[in-house]
Amino acid sequence: MNIENYKLEGERLPIVTYPDPVLSTKALPVTEFTPDLHNLVKNMLFTMYHAPGIGLAAPQVGIGQRIFVLDVGYDREVVTNSAGKEEVRMSNFNPMVLINPVITGTSGTTTYEEGCLSVPGVYEEVKRYESIKVKYQDLNGKEHEMEADDLLSICIQHENDHLEGIVFIERLSNLKKNFYKKKMVKEKVK
């Protein structure tokens, strides 16, 4: 898979929702950088863009490995085509793939209203680090280090939480956390 000249292609994977146990389990490191890994990432990106979302971690598609994809800057617009039907057009892709990420530095704090594809319909303000440094591997196992701030920093922290078995509602007050947990469990039982 070529991440630099990304083309929107792949298969849409089913997204796991809370309280599925895979979302509360710490993901395992990736040790083999095979064509299967490339295919998984391709499908994760396709799923993320179509959800739509700006980040997707492997546990969210039921795979307990330390991988997430993100793109905080692509364009998405709903247009009416010549047949009078609405369709979604996406462009300006800038996908990122972080494998075995480790946050090595943090500074400042910020608050941002987050949502999550695994907790549909819930949006709450979460306190995060404003800037971070993160080490990770790419699709070929090559190591990289980068600094991130603003939305990119928040997205990386949110997705990295998924690899630690933490869903964003775990970061809310006990009152809100318990409310959403009960609500999600109740909806899952229906």
Q: Would you spell out the secondary-structure blueprint of this structure?
A:
Layout lengths: L34 H16 L4 E3 L9 E4 L4 E6 L5 E6 L4 E21 L2 E19 L5 E7 H14 L10 H16 L1
Antiparallel strand pairs: 1-2, 2-5, 3-4, 5-6, 6-7
Helix content: 10-25%
Q: Kindly, what is the distance between the CA atoms of the first and last residues, rounded to a whole number of angstroms?
A: 40 Å
Task: Pick out the low-confidence regions.
Answer: none
Main beta sheet: 5 strands, antiparallel
Mean pLDDT: 94
Q: Give the helix/strand class.
A: alpha+beta
- Rg over C-alpha atoms, rounded to the nearest angstrom: 17 Å
- Tell me the strand percentage band: 25-35%
Q: What's the count of strands?
A: 7
Number of helices: 3
Going across the major beta sheet, what is the strand order? 1-2-5-6-7
SSE pattern: HEEEEEEEHH
Oligomer: single chain
Shape descriptor: globular
Pfam family, one: Pep_deformylase
Function: Removes the formyl group from the N-terminal Met of newly synthesized proteins. Requires at least a dipeptide for an efficient rate of reaction. N-terminal L-methionine is a prerequisite for activity but the enzyme has broad specificity at other positions.
GO molecular function, one term: metal ion binding
Active site: 159
